[in-house]
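Q: What structure does this chain adopt?
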Amino acid sequence: MAATLSPKSAIIDGEAIVLNGKGVSDFHSLRSAMRWAPDRIIFVAFDLLHLDGVNLRPAPLLERREKLLELVGPAKGVIQYSHHVHGGGADFYAAVDRMGLEGMVSKRPDSVYRSGDTEAWLKTKCYEEVDFEVAGVQLKPGSAPLALMATRDAERRYVGSAHIALTKAMRERLWAKVQEGKGTPPKGADKPDAEWIKPGLVGRVKTLKREDKLRHATLQAIREAKS
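A:
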């Protein structure tokens, strides 16, 4: 725990995670653990911004991380140091994908710490494109409409929402389906503000890999299902 660390004060940048049975970070397990099993949560430290009154933000990244390792140590407890790999971005990404991880973060080794948008680091996620049924559209005042997706099997289970990134012609086809109506909500959908459409419209969705529910998803294309 933080109280066991030696400095009087420190600002550590990191991320809270929960590991699944395969030892892989699991976002949905994290959400559950925050309420039911907080002892499963691990804080992975990857940067040190401030230490005992000294501002480390202007120091190069690798220098900050060296001090972070001295502070945290290669421990396996509640607070853990995030190790890095030099170079080989493409090969590392391929390994991340094979391991079933969400993605990777690349940083310039000599970069200073800046809040907000910066070109000093880049997050690369592992995506896949999957076909689902377009079950409906969620229309919230003041928000962009979302496509509501379901599995294309007998269960017709709701899998989540996706941002709509269609061509003009495809959008017009989708809105025509919405106006036609005649749809019913899929299993597990609780969307009182949704417009459900008649089954038969297939959507190609880009989403994070290996997730039970859609995450960071966009609807890329639509087509009529083959009868």
